[in-house]
Amino acid sequence: MKVQQELMRHASIQTTMNVYGQAMPESKREANEKVVTMVLKLLRASA
To answer: Fewer CB in 10 Å around end: N or C, the chain?
Structure first.
C-alpha cells in the first residue's frame, strides 16, 4: 500500500486504502502488479 500511496501521490495512506484497500480479483491484482513494476522501472531508469 505504501508504494501505491507514493506512486499515486496521495498525501494520506487513508486515501490509498479507501481506493485500493478493497479486495481485488486475481486478474486485477496481476494487472496492478504489472503497472507498478513498469512505473518503478521507469523511475529507477530516470534516477
So the answer is: C
| CA distance linking residue 32 with residue 30, whole number of Å | 5
Distances (CA, A) of 7 to 33, 42: 12, 12
- pTM of the full predicted structure? 0.48
Domain residue spans in the chain?
2-46
Name the burial class of residue 20, with classes exposed (0-12), middle (13-18) and buried (19+) by CB atoms within 10 angstroms of its CB.
middle
